[in-house]
Amino acid sequence: MEIRKLIPKKKQGLVVVITGNGKGKTSSAMGMALRATGHEMKTCIIQFMKGDIYSGEWDGVTRLDGLVELTATGKGFCGIEGNPYPHKEHRANAQAAVELVLEKIDSGRYDMIILDEINNALELKLIDYEQLETILKKRPPHLHMILTGRSADPRVIEQADTVSQVNEIKHAYRKGIEPQPGVDY
Amino acid sequence: MEIRKLIPKKKQGLVVVITGNGKGKTSSAMGMALRATGHEMKTCIIQFMKGDIYSGEWDGVTRLDGLVELTATGKGFCGIEGNPYPHKEHRANAQAAVELVLEKIDSGRYDMIILDEINNALELKLIDYEQLETILKKRPPHLHMILTGRSADPRVIEQADTVSQVNEIKHAYRKGIEPQPGVDY
To answer: For every one of its 185 residues, what pLDDT tens digit does chain A have, with 9 covering 90 and above?
Structure first.
């Protein structure tokens, strides 16, 4: 059997939104970063809100021969039980993250930029819709942009090319199973 | 800010099902494999049905310092337009894949086994439910098992710990955009 290699007649950057309340949104974005390395493509991952709890992808991406960079910019999930930081501090971090994203786009160094949890950051008013609009408008046509997080704004869904809604059918934590390394973080 | 490192009091393997018609199921599984390498965990990926068209994850995983193995066992999506192989041949490949999965479980070498597109393979009768049951029964308690593909069997969902349904809200191909490297394959 011969293995076919697809080559699109027209290469173009896509805006992909992965939203919903189920497990697998960030995982899905990380999988695209991994897949992209098979095509020698470069990816930049900016994680909003995340940064206070270690997650395996932080070290995982460092194995990918310099093709994937990841920056976790946050202080955890704003407003959830146990998170000690006020909204103002979360917002300051997210605002700095927006600046970083704009710089990364300007650098022209990437084929894919992943904005992990940005939907959440918008929902929680850590960034403003206008800022996300600026990011999307700045995206050059060849650049893929992947936006993850619950509760994607309908205006973002409108502008996206591909949108998936990941719904929870069940989740291990509801049975009292703690988060497990590799699967959950 | 101190970064917390979660360590579950009880480590346990999870059965995770990622199903639905939307984009991001295989990506999600690949992301878990990448994340697992951050914890020095070993993953084995067996792709059912896939194997006729190059996908970036095939080379992507070879960058992960030997922690992730991937075998694409198939001849493409059985029954879709343009696929020239009869059901019998697809089934023979999937049957060989089941044997491989059982060997991989027996080897005891992995922390995570990903059965990519196995839900589809079952739906299309390339494997029998009893075979999938045998696989799930053979799973040792520490081993994570990730099952992807549309139309997961309700009996599999019943046995799983975490199940996500990825629904298509929109997809670029419906606008006539060809599959793009990195994002789609």
So the answer is: 889 999 999 999 999 999 999 999 999 999 999 999 999 999 999 999 999 999 999 999 999 999 999 999 999 998 888 899 999 999 999 999 999 999 999 999 999 999 999 999 999 999 999 999 999 999 999 999 999 999 999 999 999 999 999 999 999 999 999 999 999 99
Q: Which residues of A touch B54 (CB under 8 A)?
A: 3-6
- Asked, for residue A19, whether it belongs to a domain, the answer is yes
Whether this prediction's pTM lies above 0.90 is answered by yes
A134 CA: distance to closest CA in chain B (Å):
22
Please list every residue in chain A whose beta carbon sits closer than 8 Å to the beta carbon of residue B17.
169
pLDDT number for residue A6: 96
Q: Within 10 A of A134 (CB to CB), how many other CB atoms are there?
A: 14
Does residue B183 belong to any structural domain of this protein?
Answer: no
Provide the β-strand partners of residue B70. Answer: B45
Count the domains in chain B: 1
Residue B1's SS3 state is coil
Question: CB–CB of B59 and A38 under 8 A?
Answer: yes
Give the tokens for residue B110: 């992995």
Q: Is residue B6 domain-resident? A: no
Do A170 and B157 count as a contact with CB atoms less than 8 A apart? Answer: yes
Nearest partner of A106 among A62, A143, A73, judged by Cα: A143
| CA A179 from centroid of its chain's CA atoms | 20
User: What's B45's domain CATH number?
Assistant: 3.40.50.300
In a domain, A108, yes or no: yes
Q: Do the Cβ atoms of B114 and A24 come closer than 8 Å?
A: no
Interface ipTM: 0.97
Nearest to B181 among A41, A157, A161 (CB): A41
Q: Are A105 and A131 in contact (CB under 8 A)?
A: no
How many helices (H) and strands (E) in chain A? Answer: 6, 6
